[in-house]
Specification:
single chain, about 475 residues, alpha+beta, Thrombin, subunit H, 4 domains, seven-stranded antiparallel beta sheet, 9 helices, about 20% helix, globular
Length: about 475
């Protein structure tokens, strides 16, 4: 046998050996490893973990796969099913444009945040509720819930049940969760109680114009974990089973899951729930300036290449921002050492503070970088903690609240009454929830009780001028009573 034939023979043997090794590795990864992992977890997994861990990080299966089982076990008992009975306008006949008030049933989810029965959910889940039933994930316990407070600007609400010794969820720091990390959505989609789906954090700081409020807080965590109707108010958790956010919305042309879900970050949830529990009202801190995103058109008008941040469009004269030295045209790059690149991120940073707190801004002014300290105020321009000024009118069937100083300056009006949570007589006027009535029959009001009396005395003819939640103006005339 010549030398070339011998070399060719050994080369073929070597190739065959390599192919055999590659086939064995593939067989192990595709077939053997997953089965070994399932068998390992079935026989050993439960012994390695406590029933509930304050900070749980699941061990990987052999072969590299990650188990969501224990994160689900931690979170599921803390998520409840919420059934709501409310009175809403229903249109019975096509010739009845205003409709009639009738009983409507709806449902959603909530998250237990304390052992004594405080539950966080979305404001829109329990809005206008006349009866709230809280059902635990095992369907064996049911409680009547009472709303402690709402916050329309973030779409959050706090509900209380009379119970003790309840399982409750731990808060994660939503600032620390990275894009691309695993998360689970826990809730009750389509009335399928205690459902869990998995996905990743797709983006942070999203503003999707969901909250129709004069001063919205929108800095959503975006996820591709499946979120559907009924998940609203449920938990978005990390692999420790700790709360990352409250699931709030989906973006879909069909109304069902399409890969885009949005959750309110847990840091915002924790602050707002704490305020509602302590005061019954959220202590919002404000900077008296109009701040906007830097879009492509605005970026083209700015000098220099560095346009990362948010743009100060205007500053209210003698307001806190003006007194601190902030100017129209400034670019805010950081708030308290946190980089802000979107309006949502800017709003989120202010949402953590209360009136009287100071924030430090890093701003770009022309080619210079400056640091500015701003003393934050409440809606009335003072540093004291705000009081709940909402007055519930039994006669009108709605909550009435006066416009604040900042709002009156923003809209250039001398007064106004905001209408919200409509469920009675005034709902027949078909006004947008959150609509601000600036004049009633030509008169402006700042006192909700005086406004209520004027509505009672108006009789059949009512002329209203006001402002929609998007800032647009509107006028209405009603005759024949309401």
């Amino acid at each position: 046998m010549d030398r070339q034939k011998v070399l060719r023979y050994f080369f073929l043997i070597f190739l065959s050996f390599c192919a055999g090794i590659a086939g064995a590795i593939s067989l192990y990864k595709v077939y053997i490893a997953p089965q070994m992992a399932d068998l390992w977890y079935k026989n050993n997994g439960p012994e390695y973990y406590p029933a509930r861990a304050a900070a749980f990080r699941p061990e990987p299966y052999p072969g590299g796969a990650v188990s969501f089982v224990k994160a689900s076990e931690v979170a599921r008992p803390c998520v409840v099913y919420i059934k709501v009975q409310s009175e809403q306008r229903v249109q019975s006949f096509f010739w009845d444009p205003f409709g009639t008030m009738g009983q409507v049933s709806s449902s959603g989810s909530g998250v237990i945040i304390s052992s004594d029965g405080y539950i966080v959910t979305n404001s829109h889940v329990v809005k206008n509720a006349q009866k709230i039933e809280i059902i635990f994930n095992n369907n064996k316990k049911s409680f009547t819930g009472k709303v402690v407070g709402f916050d329309a600007s973030s779409d959050l609400a706090l509900v209380k049940i009379s119970a003790s010794g309840l399982p409750y969820i731990n808060f994660a720091n939503s600032d620390d969760i990275p894009i691309g990390d695993w998360v689970l959505a826990v809730g009750n989609p389509f009335n399928l109680t205690s459902s869990v789906t998995a996905g990743i954090v797709s983006a942070k700081g999203r503003n999707i114009n969901l909250v129709h409020n004069q001063f919205p807080i929108e800095s959503f965590i975006q996820t591709d974990a499946a979120i559907n109707p009924g998940n609203s108010g449920g938990a978005l958790v990390n692999l420790d089973g700790n709360l990352v956010g409250i699931n709030t919305a989906i973006m879909s042309e069909t109304g069902s899951y399409a890969g885009y879900g949005f959750a309110i970050p847990s840091n915002i949830v924790k602050k707002i729930a704490g305020d509602l529990k302590e005061f019954g009202y959220v202590q919002r801190a404000f900077m008296e300036a109009d701040v906007v995103d830097i879009d492509e058109n605005l970026a083209g008008t700015l000098n220099g290449d560095n346009v990362n941040g948010v743009y100060v469009k205007s500053v209210i004269e003698d307001g806190n921002a003006d007194k601190a030295g902030l100017k129209a045209g400034d670019i805010i790059m950081k708030v308290n050492d946190r980089i802000v690149e979107t309006l949502g991120q800017f709003q989120e940073q202010l949402a953590y503070d209360r009136p009287g707190d100071k924030v430090t801004l890093v701003v770009k002014r022309g080619s210079k970088i400056e640091q500015i300290s701003v003393l934050l105020t409440n809606l009335n321009g003072t540093t004291g903690l705000a009081k709940n000024t909402v007055y519930h009118s039994e006669y009108l069937g709605a909550d009435l609240s006066p416009l604040s100083k900042i709002e009156m300056q923003k809209y250039n009006v001398s007064g106004g009454i905001r209408i919200s949570n409509q469920s009675g007589r005034i709902a027949r006027l078909n006004l947008q929830d959150g609509f601000v009535i600036t004049t009633l029959n030509g008169v402006s009001y700042t006192d909700p009780k005086l406004f209520e009396s004027a509505m009672q005395a108006a009789g059949g003819n009512i002329q209203i001028q006001g402002i929609n939640s998007d800032g647009s103006r509107a006028s209405y005339f009603f005759s024949g009573g309401y």
